Amino acid sequence: MTEKIKWEILSEKKVKEPKKSVEDIINVLLKNRGLRVKTEADEFFNPKHPNDIDIKKLGIRNAELKKAIKRIKKALKENENICVYGDYDADGVCATAICWESLYSVYKNVSPFIPSRFDEGYGLNAESVKKIAKDDPNLKLIITVDNGIVSHDGVKKANELGIDVIITDHHQKQKKLPKALAVIHTDKLSGSGVAWIFAKEVLKKIGKDRTDLIAENTLELAAIGTIADQLPLIGACRSIAKYGLESLNSTKRPGLISMFEEAGISGSEYKKSKNRKISTYDVNYIIAPRINAMGRMEHAIDSLRLICTKDIMKAKKLARSLGFVNKERQKRLEEVLSHAKEIVKKSRIRGAILVSHESYHEGLIGLIASKLVEEHWRPAIVFSKGETISKASARSISGFNIIESIKKLDEIIIKGGGHPMAAGFSIETKKIDLFEKEFQKIANEILTDEMLTKSIKIDLEIEFSLINQMLYEHILKFEPFGVGNNSPLFATKDVVAETVTLVGNEGQHLKMTLGKNGKKFPAIAFGKGNYINKIQAGLGFDIAYGIEANTWNGKTSLQLKVKDINFK
Ligand SMILES: [Mn+2]
C-alpha cells in the first residue's frame, strides 16, 4: 500500500531565466527557511564558530555563570568532590562527557553519574541524590547536565545533605525554579550544547593553557547531542552542528573511531565509495542509536565509557558491545512492533493510537510510538504494562500538542512531562482503560482530517533544464541539514521514465532514467517498487525529489532521489 501524500509547495515562484536560475532558486530556498536573503543568508552560509556565540543572546545569565564558577573554584580550593549528573540518552551522555572531561582536565576529584532509566528514571531525584551522597561523603557539589530544571525534590534533598547544586539544562522551565546555587539555562541549545558553553566558560576562568584544545575536542560531542535531540539546526545550533561535524570527521577518540569501524562508516574505502563525510544522517541513524541503545536495554554508563576512553583495546571492546546491544535492541523492537501493529490492525483506529502490553520493553516504547506515528500519521501512546504501575511514551503529529492533552488527565496519571511532540508518563495499570477512553475523547475533539493527512514540504517546482552541477554545489552549502533546515525538495511535472528496473533484495525500490524536454537524469525511488506497472505503461507523472551526487567508478554524476510520485 502506498498512501496518498499531500504536496505542500512552499513557493509558487517560476524560475525561467537560465542565466540567473541558480541564484533565483537559492533565494527561494533561503526564503523558505525563514531567512532574509540580504541580511541573514551570509551568516547562514558562514556560521560563526561556536567560540563566538553570544551567550547573552541565548538567555544564559552572566550572574548565574559567575556564581557557578565561584563555587567550582571553592571546590577546587577545598578539595571537595564534584559529581556531574547526566542522562541516559545520546544528548545526556554527550553532555556528561563534555562537562566531566573539561573539569577533569584541571581537577581529578570529579566523577560522572548517569542514572538508570529503569531504577532511577530521568532527572536529578531525591533517591539518587541520597545514594550518591552515601557512596561519597566528600561530595559537596552536583552539576546537572541535560536535566535538573524541574528537579525540585532532588535539589532540596541535596541541600539538606549539605551539597550545592549547579543546574545546566535546556528543557522547558516552569515558573518556579529549583532552589539551586546557580541555574544555567536556555532552550535554544541542546543539553550538550549548554554543557559545552558552560564548560568552556568555566575553563576560561580556571583552566590552564589547554582550554581551546579541550573545547575543540568536545565540540564533536555537542554536535552529536544537538542533532540527536532534534534541535532545529539554525542559529547557534547550526554553528555547533557544522563545526562539530567537521571535527567528528577527524575525531581522535578511540571509542568513536572503533564505533565507526564497527558500524561500517569509516575508513578511506567508505569515504571514497560514498564520496561523502559523516553527516547528520549518520548521527541520526548510526551513531545516536548506538549511544542510546545502552540506556534503553542496560545502562548508559558504557556509552559514556566508550566516548571518553583513551584505551584502544577497551574502545574496541566497548564498540563491539554497543553494536551488539544495538542489534538486540533492533530485534526486540521488530518483535514488539509487529505485535503492536497487529493490535492496531484489529482495532478500527479513529483518533489516536493507544496500545499496551506486558511484553513492551520500557526502553523501547518511545521508539514504538514513533514508528506507529510514522506509519499511521496520528498521535500514538504506547504503554509498558507493569503489575501495578505502567510506563507510557507518547509521540505526536504537528498540530496536536500531546503534553497538553496528557496534562488534561492529570488526575488519572501519576506523573509526566515532555514536549508538544513527545512525552512520557507513569500511570497505575488499572487506570489505563480509563485513560484511553478519556484521551480519545480529547483527541477526537482536536484532530482534524487536515492534521491526519500526511504531507511533504516541497521548496518549488522547477524544470529539468535548470538542474546542473552549479545548482548542486550551491545546495551543498545549506548543510548540515536537519530539523528546521530540510534538504531541499523540488517538484517537476510530467516526466517520463525512459528506463525502469526494480532494485533491492525484495525489488522494493525503483531505479529509473527520467526525462523531460530532452534532458534526462538517473533517479532512485526508495520503497516505490509497487509503482512499477503504472510506470511501465509509459504515462507521464509528477515527482518530488532531492538532488544528490552519485559516484560510480570514480565518476560523479547528478542523480534524483525521488521522495514521492503522483500519477494523473
Ligand atoms: Mn536533551
Describe, in short, the structure shown.
This protein is α/β, with parallel strands linked by helices. It is built from 19 helices and 18 strands.
- The portion of residues assigned to helices is 40-55%
Which geometry do the CA atoms define?
A: globular
Unreliable residue stretches: none
Count the DSSP helices: 19
Find the count of extended strands (DSSP E, 2+ residues).
18
Placed side by side, the strands forming the largest sheet appear as 3-2-4-5-6
Q: What is the subunit arrangement here?
A: single chain
* Strand content bin: 15-25%
Spatial gap, N to C terminus: 18 Å
Structural class: alpha/beta
Q: Output mean pLDDT.
A: 92
Question: Which ligands are bound?
Answer: manganese (II) ion
**Largest sheet properties:** 5 strands, parallel
Write the topology of this structure:
Layout: E1 6-9, H1 21-32, H2 41-45, H3 62-77, E2 81-85, H4 90-104, E3 110-113, H5 126-135, E4 139-144, H6 152-160, E5 164-169, E6 182-185, H7 191-206, H8 211-228, H9 235-249, H10 254-263, H11 267-274, H12 280-297, H13 301-308, H14 312-346, E7 353-357, H15 365-376, E8 380-384, E9 389-395, H16 402-407, E10 413-418, E11 422-428, H17 432-446, E12 455-458, E13 460-461, H18 469-476, E14 490-503, E15 509-516, E16 519-525, H19 532-536, E17 541-552, E18 555-567
Parallel strand pairs: 1-12, 2-3, 2-4, 4-5, 5-6, 7-8, 13-14, 16-18
Antiparallel strand pairs: 8-9, 9-11, 10-11, 14-15, 14-17, 15-16, 17-18
Helix pairs in contact: 3-7, 4-7, 4-8, 4-13, 5-6, 7-8, 8-9, 8-12, 10-14, 12-13, 12-14, 13-14, 14-15
